[in-house]
Amino acid sequence: MLGLIITILIVGAIAGFVARLLVPGRQDLSIVATIVLGIIGSFIGGMLGYLLFHKDADDGFFQPAGIIGSIIGAVIALLIWQWSKRRNSSHA
């Protein structure tokens, strides 16, 4: 169980940091928020991967496709976060 939690945190950190590098603009996120972004991205990427390819995690938990999906999901989550932040600041 502890290994699973550590793996989730590491993959979340990698996906979050790479997403922040790929999305232009400044993101005011702490390290913890970056890890949470990556974890949310993992859920989004996993859902998209399942919807597109109808695959499950039966082939193993730690896969390169999973990491790529996590990064794509984190980019999507970060773009949605930036869009909502811009939208809320323009209405204020």
Q: Can you walk me through this structure?
A:
The protein is mainly alpha-helical. It has one domain. 78% of the residues lie in helices and 0% in strands. The radius of gyration is 14 Å and the shape is globular. The N and C termini lie far apart (44 Å). The mean pLDDT is 84. It holds the Pfam family Transgly_assoc. The chain crosses the membrane at residues 6-23, 30-53, 65-83. It is a multi-pass membrane protein. Its main location: membrane.
Summarize the structure.
By secondary structure, this protein is mainly α. The protein has helices at residues 2-22, 31-53, 64-91. 25% of the residues are buried.
Layout of secondary structure:
Layout: H1 2-22, H2 31-53, H3 64-91
Helix pairs in contact: 1-2, 1-3, 2-3
Q: Which range best describes the helical content: under 10%, 10-25%, 25-40%, 40-55%, 55-70% or over 70%?
A: over 70%
Instruction: Please write the string of helix (H) and strand (E) elements.
Output: HHH
The count of β-strands is 0
Please, what is the average pLDDT?
Answer: 84
Unreliable residue stretches: none
Radius of gyration: 14 Å
> Major sheet: size, sense and barrel closure?
none
SS field, number of helical segments? 3
How many independent structural domains? 1
> By helix and strand content, what is the structural category?
mainly alpha
Strand content: under 5%
Shape descriptor reads: globular
What is the CA-CA span between the terminal residues? 44 Å
Subcellular location: Cell membrane
Family: Belongs to the UPF0410 family.
Keywords: Cell membrane, Membrane, Transmembrane, Transmembrane helix
Protein name: GlsB/YeaQ/YmgE family stress response membrane protein
